[in-house]
Amino acid sequence: ETGVTQTPRHLVMGMTNKKSLKCEQHLGHNAMYWYKQSAKKPLELMFVYSLEERVENNSVPSRFSPECPNSSHLFLHLHTLQPEDSALYLCASSQGPGTDEKLFFGSGTQLSVL
Amino acid sequence: EDQVTQSPEALRLQEGESSSLNCSYTVSGLRGLFWYRQDPGKGPEFLFTLYSAGEEKEKERLKATLTKKESFLHITAPKPEDSATYLCAVQHPGGSYIPTFGRGTSLIVHP
To answer: Which residues of A touch B102 (CB under 8 A)?
Structure first.
């Protein structure tokens, strides 16, 4: 398997549920990202892990919690979400800082919060 | 205010009707400008990186150009399979070199 793989592809959850999104990259990259894509809005960076350092968008609510156990795997833990969190969540990877930050994206998880 | 502005928001073309998409940016110290294509239900797919004013890149019917404050994606004699959303992103020191995206242009090419 090559590229960036995200699971699940679709997720429907209630506001009291806890779920996790998973991402795996098979490209040997050093940086992994979570982006949120909502209709009519630019892709919104949520978190970046690069060489074990984390950069986060300070506007992301604490109900989103990332985890990066190694350079190939990335998780986004979700708890007590709100309906406005419904969106496409995209994982991406790149070679890492100081390089051409060309991003390779997964197919995304379409999240619906009821 | 968006740092990256794409226009038009949507574009409908007839097959074979050439046109251009625009991406303008306000950031300083541009390190790279990226074009991506996104099909429905999929993640964005990388097309081009441009680094300096005057640079051009081509791939099939697509040609990307860069000036000091904007980039154009020229589509020559488009086909229906070129229908997609085209995203522009910039990399600059003020954003910790993390790409900042525009809202995209939705392109539909009618046969």
So the answer is: 42
